[in-house]
Amino acid sequence: MISRLPYELLSAILEEVAYSNAQEIQQYTYGVDSTSTNGKAQRVLRGHVANDSVRWLSTDAIRQVNTQWHDWACQYALRDLYIRRWRGSERWTQSRKLDSIHGCPSRDVFYRDPYCSLRKTVDLFTKYPSLGSSVRRIFFDGFYGVETNTMILQVLKYCDELDLVSLPWTTLRYGSGEDWSRLLGSRDDGTALTSLELLAVDLKQSQITDHGRHVDKHPLDSPTVNFGHLQRLKLSGSSNLMPVNDDDLIAISRTARLRELHITGTTSVTTKGLVALGRASEDTLRVLEHSPLSDDGFEHPNASCTDDGSHLCEEIVHCPHLRDLAISLPTICGDLFSNTSVNWVGDVQIRAAGICGQSGRLDKAVEARQAFFNSLSQARALIQAQRKRGVVLNIEIFVDHLIFEPSKSLVHADLSVGEILSAGTWPELPDPSFKGPYGQTGQYGKDERAYQCISEDEFVVGLRKGYISF
To answer: Burial code of 49-71, b = ≥16 C-beta within 10 A, e = fewer?
Structure first.
């Protein structure tokens, strides 16, 4: 009788069953630690069992009922796949019972193929190609070699219903134009991949000097590679081997029409590549995040203009549908806040090292300092204009480890030096701040002191007397 139910209702029932089964499955992995003071081995918690493994085990009984339930269970269990390189080492114990283990486990190291999960996924999809159609989101972590990237592309060949894929940046080097054309192309039903993430990391020196890794098939040069269906692109991390750079972003921009662009923690991408993608997606871009990894995100080598002389601040406000913004620019000015018709909402974070068209430190150059405070006034005017439209907008401007909050006319900073220089007379009435040198994330627990907040007027007093600088 239950099989005669509408598929939506049957799916809801089976999902509840799978969830209930998951509660009875072991959720953690354990190891043995023999370093306790009494000399006896004890069980220790190592980590969580992967979510995809739990889902697969929770649907084991469901898969054995009939074909319909088997297909549903595969779609449920394989919907999100996390394929990681195995890290660590294990040693065999002499007994299954903890009470009988005395001293350290044996010295025989248990070897495990670090790429076992990837190889088994390739074998599974090769033997049962139809399973690949159940995958909607797939994440690859820790595979940076030519061989492993070849296996990744083999897996992706069977996943013809993907919505999101997270890949190592090396796939952009080792994959061919045909591989990327297949991954990004439109399918028979009109759907296509909508979200692409490329994660970069620094490799060991031995890996960098391995000439076998210095392979670049230049897939972006192929005319068949089209990013036109992609809605979200995320580049994260930095690498010391063939990193993603401005030329790659310019090549992507030839066909891209993105809604979301995230570039975080990288040193190889500048505003040149950012502007190229921004211009290509000017009419569609809704989310823009650009947080490069360079001197805490405040200093940048780029000028305030693009190669063709366009002003960066004006380029940003020319995106009519942009709503969420967190960006690092070499310089800013009032032009960034002059367009009151922008659709910015929520928290907007802007990092800058100076003022457009001005040189020298802001606390030394009078014109630069005046231009900066004019920018704060422009930001306040934009916030008020959005408020009249019923839109809540909060702008934070980061300059040299100072955080300016124009909506409240506040400045957040470490004021301890000023307190010493003024012999405790400045600032007069500082308030505690929950912010830190890294914004809302506060402090990293290193050598940073707690931040305090003061009014802009009191900040100006401190500037004039030399108690604080920026």
So the answer is: eeebebbbbbbeebbeeeeebee
Task: Give one word for 111, left, alpha or beta, with left for phi > 0 and alpha for psi -120 to 50.
Answer: beta
User: Which three-class secondary structure string do you get for 379-437?
Assistant: HHHHHHHHHHCCCCEEEEEEECCEEEEHHHCEEEECCHHHHHHCCCCCCCCCEECCCEC
Split at pLDDT 50, 70, 90, the class of 105 is: low
Phi, psi of 423 (to 5 degrees): 60, 35
Mean pLDDT of 55-59: 90
Q: Cα dist. 238→174, 371, 434 in Å?
A: 18, 34, 29
275 neighbors 314 (Cβ within 8 angstroms) = no
Phi, psi of 317 (to 5 degrees): -75, -5
CB atoms < 10 A from the CB of 266, how many?
24
Side-chain-facing half-sphere of 99: CA atoms under 13 Å: 0
Alpha-carbon distance of 212 to 29, in angstroms, equals 36
What contacts 24+ positions apart, CB below 8 Å, involve 117-123?
Answer: 117/83, 117/84, 117/85, 117/86, 118/83, 118/85, 118/143, 118/148, 118/151, 118/152, 118/155, 119/151, 121/81, 121/83, 121/155, 122/151, 122/154, 122/155
Sequence-distant (6+) residues with CB within 8 A of 455 are 409, 410, 411
Where does residue 441 rank: exposed (0-12), middle (13-18), buried (19+ CB within 10 A)? exposed
Distance CA 409, CA 129 (A): 60
- Residues β-bridged to residue 349: 326, 396
- Distance between CA atoms of 203 and 188, rounded to whole angstroms? 39
Triad 195, 196, 200: Cα angle to 5° = 150
pLDDT tens-digit readout, 155-165: 999 999 999 99
CB contact at 8 A, 346 and 324: yes
Count of CB atoms situated within 10 Å of the CB of 110: 10
Note the pLDDT tens digit of each residue in 336-365.
Answer: 999 999 999 999 999 888 888 877 677 677
**DSSP character for 326?**
E
Give the three-class secondary structure for 438: coil
Over its C-alpha atoms, the chain yields an Rg (Å, rounded) of: 27
